[in-house]
Specification:
The structure is a single chain. The strands form 2 sheets. The protein has a 6-stranded mixed β-sheet. It has a 5-stranded parallel β-sheet with strand order 6-3-4-5-11, with helices on both faces. It starts with 11 loop residues before the first helix and ends with a helix. By secondary structure, it is of the alpha/beta class. It contains 18 helices and 11 strands. It has 2 domains: about 200 residues, Rossmann fold, CATH 3.40.50.1100; about 140 residues, Rossmann fold (3-Layer(aba) Sandwich). Bound molecules: pyridoxal-5'-phosphate.
């Protein structure tokens, strides 16, 4: 069903295929299922945990029977929970071992594996539009690259993504088109939204989206929290706490849903960059969306977190919600200082997003907190070497998949930040076919 509850309830397949609900709300399950931690196979892989965790959401659906295969196809890499030797009780949940070195790979690959299996009435190619502040676009491109009858059009703000992010976005070719927009991320998002809502354009060019509000991206993200927390609980018999670097609240929402479902997750804290919408809300102010400001943790430059509506749906009692969650801002100076001090003192290297979460933990430790915390590492530092290397004074080793992408030529078309320009560009593809 939709968070606004004025659209008809749909099956999970339909919700995944549609992305956004027709009333403009976000799809949510009618009720979050609960699971006994003992129901999970203690020796199961991440894909196995995912299949058990997600089964209740798919019960009775056309994709139910395929769910284990979808999980096996999507989760071909691990999400290890790695203890930091220099800091007892501190663990890193590493979510950057996928093809594009950021956590977006989990959601994008699961969504692609679902869409591949869903029948479409239209025989024409489906165009997937995606606006990205850097990491989503590459993950979606990698997940759909060379998939028959699908084309992906990525819009990113020219000059506002890291050089390596830009290279990744432009290196696929084939059925992937990268458009560098002379504007900001908000422009890219607006252009995608206007195009998707343009009925005449839809009739010519069938389109769908793959943005972070899709249930097909949110649900699979619960899997790594479940897997890590279950492993910890079996070994130590205690709950695991998480600090999640947050922008649109997609990754954090998944953690909270997993906790609501009964997984052994303790406290959840949100680490934000200088964009203070959530920290202000959790410190007692009214919810006040605003324009995003640019920071070193660019994938979290969000002033109006798109999953906020899901958070409110999940926790209707505002007073309880404010007790349940904490959110803090980490400014660019603190991000720099965290990257520098951890590298120099302990040889640990973090991407700017991960550094916001580590900064929050450093703050807790300084205040005397000695409990076990998992810091969620959302991207590999090598993706943000232009920020990280000048601070650490050392090159960051590049993961194999990223280095293969950087070795390929990259190309992006420039486009004005205008809805008309995108419309014309999309129609051009149709003429060429
Ligand atoms: C997308 C992204 C985030 C923010 O995730 P949300 O789900 O939008 O909160 C954090 N870090 C990195 C590296 C990202 O790509």
């Amino acid at each position: 069903m939709s968070t606004r509850a004025s659209s008809p309830a749909v099956s999970i397949s339909q919700a995944i295929a549609a992305g956004l609900a027709p009333d403009g709300g976000l799809y949510v399950p009618e009720k979050l299922p609960t699971l006994d931690p003992a129901a999970f196979d203690p020796h199961g892989s991440l894909a196995h945990t995912a299949a058990t965790l997600l089964a209740p959401f798919f019960a009775g659906d056309a994709l139910a029977y395929e769910l284990p295969a979808i999980c096996a196809e999507a989760f071909t890499f691990d999400a290890p929970l790695r203890p930091l030797p220099a800091h007892p009780g501190t663990l890193m949940l590493e979510l950057f071992h996928g093809p594009t070195s950021a956590f977006k790979d989990f959601g994008a690959r699961f969504l692609a594996a679902c869409l591949r299996r869903l029948p479409r009435a239209d025989a024409r190619p489906l165009t997937i539009l995606v606006a990205t502040s850097g990491d989503t676009g590459a993950a979606v491109a990698a997940a759909f690259h060379r998939q028959p009858n699908v084309r992906v059009v990525i819009l990113y703000p020219d000059g506002l993504v890291s050089p390596r992010q830009a290279h990744q976005l432009g290196c696929f070719g084939d059925n992937i088109t990268a458009l560098r927009v002379a504007g900001r991320f908000d422009d890219c998002q607006r252009m995608v939204k206007v195009a998707l809502n343009d009925a005449a354009l839809q009739a010519e060019v069938p389109m769908s989206s793959a943005n972070s509000i899709s249930l097909g991206r949110l649900l699979p993200q619960m899997s790594y929290y479940a897997h890590a927390a279950l492993g910890w609980w079996r070994e130590h018999g205690t709950l695991l706490n998480f600090i999640v670097p947050t922008g649109n609240l997609g990754n954090a929402m998944a953690c909270l849903w997993a906790r609501e479902m009964g997984l052994p997750i303790g406290e959840v804290r949100l680490a934000c960059n200088a964009n203070a919408t959530l920290p202000d809300y959790f410190s007692g102010h009214d919810y006040q969306p605003r324009e995003a400001v640019a920071t070193l943790a660019n994938a979290m430059d969000v002033g109006a977190p798109s999953n906020f509506e899901r958070l409110r749906w999940t926790f209707p009692d505002e007073t309880k919600l404010r007790h349940l969650l904490h959110a803090h801002c980490v400014d660019d100076d603190s991000i720099r200082q965290t990257i520098t001090s951890h590298a120099h003192e302990h040889g640990e290297v973090f991407c700017p997003h991960t550094a916001t979460a580590m900064h929050e933990l450093d703050r807790l430790r300084a205040a005397g907190d000695a409990s076990a915390w998992a810091v969620v590492a959302t991207a590999h530092a090598a993706k943000f070497e232009s920020v990280v290397e000048p601070l650490t004074g050392r090159p960051v080793a590049i993961p194999t998949a990223l280095s293969a992408m950087l070795g390929r030529p990259a190309e992006a078309e420039s486009i004005a930040a205008s809805d008309k320009a995108l419309r014309a560009r999309l129609l051009l593809d149709r003429v060429e076919r």
